[in-house]
From TrEMBL:
Domain Folate receptor-like stretches: 34-209
Gene Ontology biological-process entries: anterior neural tube closure; axon regeneration; cardiac neural crest cell migration involved in outflow tract morphogenesis; cell adhesion; folic acid metabolic process; fusion of sperm to egg plasma membrane involved in single fertilization; heart looping; neural crest cell migration involved in heart formation
Organism, as annotated: Ictidomys tridecemlineatus
Any one GO molecular function term: folic acid receptor activity
Family according to the record: Belongs to the folate receptor family.
Protein keywords: Disulfide bond, Signal
Signal sequence extent: 1-19
InterPro entries per the UniProt record, alphabetical: Folate_rcpt (IPR004269), Folate_rcpt-like (IPR018143)
GO CC term (a single one): external side of plasma membrane
This protein's name: Folate receptor alpha
Length: 255
C-alpha cells in the first residue's frame, strides 16, 4: 500500500515538475509580440498594410489600426486631444519626433518587457523605462531647441477646459532647453519615465529605436527578446515550493 502511494506521489512530483515548465515559458512569451491594454491599442498585433506615413515602419506587425496611424499625425487628434502648439507653433522638425514617438507607443508590438499595470481612468497599462537609443533621444532634443513649451511633464497638470491642453496659470512659455536642459530630461521626464535613455546606440540590439528602416526588418524585435530573456532568467522555477512541500509526506510514507 505504502509503495503504491509512493509511486503515485512520485508521479505527482513528476507531473508538478513538468507541469510547471510551460508556465515559466509562457511568462516569457507574454513579453514578446504583445500590445498594451491602453486607450487605442489593438488587442493583438497583426499586419496593417496601409499604416500612415511615419507609422508605416510597423506595417508588417502592428498594435495600431490604420485610423490610429492617421490620427497620430494630426494636431489635437481624436487620440488624446493633445495640442503640440501650446506655446506657439511647434517647429515641423520637432513635431516629427512627437509623431514618431506616438507611432512607437501606439504601433510597436515590442514594448512587452516594459509594460506595467496602472490605475488610470484612460488606460490599464503603460510603459516604463523603455531603453531608448541615445541617438534617437539626442536628435529629438536637438530638433526641438527652437520650439517652446511651459512644462516638463506633459502627462499632468494641463488646463483641459477647452478640450485640449493649455498651459496652466502660473507657468510661462520658454524654449525647450529651459524645461529640458539635457536630452535625458526631455526623453525621460516628458512622459513620466516611459523612456529611459540608453547608453547603447542604434543598431546595437540593446536599445529601442523610435526610427528604423523597415527594409531591414524591425530591429526592436531582437531588443525585446534580449530583455525578455534577461528578465525571465531571474525567475525561480515555480514548482519548487510545491515539490518541497511534498518531501515530508514522501518521508512519512517511506518510513
Ligand atoms: C478615427 O476614428 C474616430 C472614432 O471612430 C473618428 O472620430 C475619426 O474621425 C477617425 N479618423 C480617421 C482619420 O478616419
Ligand atoms: C483654463 O483655461 C480657460 C480657458 O482659456 C481659462 O478661462 C481658465 O481661467 C483656465 N483655468 C486655469 C485654472 O488655468
Ligand atoms: C556608456 O558608453 C560609453 C561608450 O560606449 C562608455 O564609455 C561608458 O562607460 C558607458 N557608461 C555607462 C554608465 O555604462
Amino acid at each position: 500500500m505504502a509503495r503504491l502511494m509512493t509511486t503515485q506521489l512520485l508521479l505527482l512530483v513528476w507531473v508538478a515538475a513538468w507541469g510547471a515548465q510551460p508556465r515559466t515559458t509562457r511568462a516569457r512569451t507574454e513579453l514578446l509580440n504583445v500590445c498594451m491594454d491602453a486607450k487605442h491599442h489593438k488587442e493583438k498585433p497583426s499586419p496593417e498594410d496601409k499604416l500612415h506615413e511615419q507609422c508605416s515602419p510597423w506595417k508588417k506587425n502592428s498594435c495600431c489600426s490604420f485610423n490610429t496611424s492617421q490620427e497620430a499625425h494630426k494636431d489635437i487628434s481624436y487620440l488624446y486631444g493633445f495640442n503640440w502648439d501650446h506655446c506657439g507653433k511647434m517647429a515641423p522638425a520637432c513635431k516629427r519626433h512627437f509623431i514618431q514617438d506616438t507611432c512607437l507607443y501606439e504601433c510597436s508590438p515590442n514594448l512587452g518587457p516594459w509594460i506595467q499595470q496602472v490605475d488610470q481612468s484612460w488606460r490599464k497599462e503603460r510603459i516604463l523605462n523603455v531603453p531608448l537609443c541615445k541617438e534617437d533621444c539626442q536628435r529629438w532634443w536637438e530638433d526641438c531647441q527652437t520650439s517652446f513649451t511651459c512644462k516638463s511633464n506633459w502627462h499632468k497638470g494641463w488646463n483641459w477646459t477647452l478640450g485640449y491642453n493649455q498651459c496652466p496659470v502660473g507657468t510661462a512659455c520658454h524654449p525647450f532647453h529651459f524645461y529640458f536642459p539635457t536630452p535625458a530630461a526631455l526623453c525621460e521626464e516628458i512622459w513620466s519615465h516611459s523612456y529611459k535613455v540608453s547608453n547603447y546606440s542604434r543598431g546595437s540590439g540593446r536599445c529601442i529605436q523610435m526610427w528604423f528602416d523597415p527594409a531591414q526588418g524591425n530591429p526592436n524585435e531582437e531588443v525585446a527578446r534580449f530583455y525578455a530573456e534577461a528578465m525571465s532568467g531571474a525567475e525561480v522555477p515555480r514548482a519548487w515550493p510545491l515539490l518541497l512541500s511534498l518531501v515530508p509526506m514522501l518521508l512519512r510514507l517511506l518510513s
